[in-house]
């Protein structure tokens, strides 16, 4: 059965690799600013080992290597194809000697990660059923004085104005609502799922850590966008069209089909009003 139908919440991460890579690259400057901020919270020269939990294709892994030049950076992911991309990216940037990978299915793989001075968990914790237990495991992995940086929340990405000239205005808001339903179903279906308030400061404190600041980092690419951003936007809406097929009204699906049709003058391929605007929130906490 296709993962896209019957309200499936499974994600094929290797299939999504190009989209994940482009998305992280476009948000690279924001992630670089976040990494620089972390270097103000912990002495960069004293950070010897960094874990990038849920590293995906390794875009942020490489940025962390730049921000912490004395550290070994370890990309941790459950998808071998994404780790292959992370290794290739590291080699291409001359970082192969400093970036390594660990294939781990969390939460059972926590014991195999080893200690770290900095743990970056980028939009990965919400894919674990018991987030409280996962944070406790991360805290146990952290060396004394080390820092956890948890990327969760922020603002959904926006790419189009409210009225796009076709279909009902407010398409992206309805896609957001469908994504919220999908996310809830995904969370409920995870092994060991626990309903938890997303109070990250409280959860970090409960894990025995001391919160050390929360900041949000903006990515703002106004119209007209460069070709690489337009390609990413097309990939994003293509993915939404597939995953949300059973969660959107027929007229919105018809609008998406027009947006994705290169022959349509209103499509994403030709529009002059396409932009990319989003924010990622980073929650930090220190170990004793």
* Sheet having the most strands: 7 strands, mixed
Number of helices: 9
CATH superfamily: Vaccinia Virus protein VP39
In round numbers, the mean pLDDT is: 93
C-alpha termini separation: 49 Å
**Unreliable segments of 5+ consecutive residues:** 1-7
Specify Rg, calculated over alpha carbons: 19 Å
Q: Looking across the biggest beta sheet, what order are the strands in? A: 3-2-1-4-5-7-6
What is the H/E string?
Answer: HHEHEHEEHEHHEHHE
Number of strands: 7
In total, the number of domains comes to: 1
CATH topology: Rossmann fold
What's a quick, concise take on this entry?
The protein is α/β, with parallel strands linked by helices and 288 residues long. 38% of the residues lie in helices and 22% in strands.
